[in-house]
Design a protein that fits this description.
CATH architecture of the largest domain: 3-Layer(aba) Sandwich
Number of domains: 2
CATH topology of the largest domain: Rossmann fold
Radius of gyration: 17 Å
Largest sheet: 6 strands, mixed
CATH superfamily of the largest domain: P-loop containing nucleotide triphosphate hydrolases
Number of helices: 7
Structural class: alpha/beta
Order of helices and strands: EEEHEEHEHHHEHEHEE
Number of strands: 10
Strand content: 25-35%
């Protein structure tokens, strides 16, 4: 599903954020990406959905070489990847329903399909009763649920989450993780960068640890391995 071969990323200021990554993530895996702040986790994540391009090496997503992908084809790539951020990135003037529907409107789905699919994912994340509310009327946890619904509404093969529980209280974080577990159980590959030690150590999955731009640990059912 995701493969990196000898991937390197150096920023214009000379910082080597990623150095010699060789990673393979298979279909249906759930992978935590952990490590200290500034280790290269966000760069690793951003390269998967082509927010950043590698300086060297090859990145394959579902067999597509995104390292050399033309910029005008990046939106097509992102139709197959759901991305979830720490700060939600919702459109404030759109309702919950409209925020989620927007992801289908841009790929010109039919109104009938949009309605049925949006209500289906809002049911999954527990927000169907709040479909007509606006983001500023929701709690942080509810806004993150909207973000998750938007990311999965077009049934992506991969969901990439960058610190999705970073701004949430512990109880809400566990609720969000339950949703990720459900998404993964349906066959979607999940890659999640996190600093949440308790989640990683409790809900065990594969752990990729990054330090100073290098992968220092890659373990099935691994633990967090750092002081939180």
């Amino acid at each position: 599903m995701i493969e990196m071969k000898d991937v390197q990323k150096m920023y214009p200021n000379g910082v080597m954020a990623v150095n010699g990554f060789n990673v393979r993530i298979n279909k249906g895996e759930f992978v935590y990406v952990v490590g200290p702040s500034g280790a290269g986790k966000s760069t690793f994540i951003k390269m998967m959905y082509r927010e950043e391009k590698p300086t060297k090496g090859t990145i394959l997503i579902n067999g597509m070489n995104i390292s050399t992908l033309k910029d005008h084809k990046v939106p097509f790539l992102r139709r197959h990847i759901g991305v979830i951020f720490q700060d939600f990135k919702l459109l404030p003037k759109l309702t919950v329903y409209e925020n989620v529907a927007f992801a289908l409107e841009v790929i010109e789905e039919t109104p009938e399909n949009i309605k049925s699919r949006v209500m289906e994912v809002l049911e999954l994340v527990g927000l169907k009763p709040k479909a007509r509310m606006f983001p500023d009327e929701l709690s942080g946890g509810e806004q993150q649920r909207v973000s998750i619904a938007r990311s999965i509404v077009n049934t992506p093969k991969v969901v990439i989450a960058d610190e999705p529980t970073g701004n949430l209280d512990p109880e809400t974080s566990w609720d969000i993780m339950n949703i990720f577990e459900e998404i993964n159980s349906r066959g979607t590959t999940v890659v999640m960068a996190t600093h949440n030690k308790d989640i990683v150590n409790t809900i065990r999955h594969r752990v990729i640890a990054i330090e100073n731009g290098q992968i220092v640990r890659d373990e099935q059912r691994g633990d967090y391995g750092y002081e939180s």
